[in-house]
Amino acid sequence: MNEQLLTVFLATYTFIFIGCGSLYIEKRSEITFVGVSLAWGAVVAANIYTFGHISGAQINPAVTFAYAVVGQFPWKQVPLYVLGELLGSTTASLTLKWIFDGENTEAMLTQPVGPNPASDLKVAVLEIIITFIYVMTNCSSRADPRAFKELGGVAVGATVFFLALVAGKITGASMNPARSLGPAIAAWNFNKIWIYIISSVIGAVSATMLYFFHLMPPKSNDNSKIEGIPIFDIRAMNQVFTNNSVDISVVSNKLGEKSLEMEFPRRLESI
Question: Which of 45, 77, 127, 206 could be 153's S-S partner, Cβ–Cβ 3.0 to 4.6 Å?
């Protein structure tokens, strides 16, 4: 548990430090808005591959809460994970404030953007939509046993990149209470913070409920299968392969199929 909480803190710290740091650099006209969006997407993908195998790379209290709602995360761990996420976000925001000497701390905030900002209702609806899409991608590419999970980080990171492009100049593209609350604490500016907290929770819970209750295949009596699709560990399958041959009976057992007693060479000569 200690290492999980530590990685939750580190993942969220890295997420905010890179993402909000890019906003400071944008203010200096050294990168473009596209570069900022890419920074957010890239750091999300990097966190998944760096911390996903330890803590699930959780950086979002709304997602943590939503997974608990659908029974995919223990409720007793929710307060600790949320605390780690908020501490990571706040610490990173304070670090950036110190590095940039308190320069324009409002650059980190998520607020309605522009000289004629969108109404609170439009901001809330857009935040619900983009959070829904982000969490749906996370469920589909990382939680579903049918998914090709090696590319889960790429899928989620790319989704964050595109959503930031669409909504960044309208709402700030939060999708995450920790993303909004940590910088707000550092800048001590809580203007419209409630919109981003409530909207992200609604979007995350809606996406997880839809996916796990309607799109995730039901488990069969055999825990190794889901709706007839065998789930197996690639590393275990690799152990089947020997220097000279492959035992098909072992492979077929891994797949839950009828055993076939035969062998064939691992390498086939080209014809």
Answer: 45
| Least-confidence region, from 32-36, 58-62, 145-149 | 145-149
pLDDT at 267 over 50: no
Residue 59 contacts residue 8 (beta carbons within 8 Å) = yes
Give the tokens for residue 188.
Answer: 């001590």
- Tokens coding 226: 């889901």
- Among residues 164, 38, 171, the alpha carbon closest in space to that of 114 is found at 171
Integer Cα distance of 99 and 16 in angstroms: 14
Residue 104 pLDDT level (bands cut at 50, 70, 90)? confident
- Give the residue among 60, 12, 80 at the shortest CA–CA distance from 176: 60
Mean pLDDT value across residues 180-207: 96
Question: What is the distance of C-alpha 131 from the center of its chain?
Answer: 11
pLDDT confidence tier of residue 149, bands split at 50, 70 and 90: confident
Cα 127 to Cα 197: distance, rounded to the nearest angstrom: 10
**C-alpha distance from residue 176 to each of 143, 199, 230 (Å):** 19, 9, 34
Those residues with Cβ within 8 angstroms of residue 45's Cβ, 6 or more apart along the chain or in another chain: 153, 154, 156, 157, 158
Please check whether residue 207 is in contact with residue 66, taking contact to mean a CB–CB distance below 8 angstroms.
Answer: yes
Is the distance from CB of 260 to CB of 248 less than 8 angstroms?
A: yes
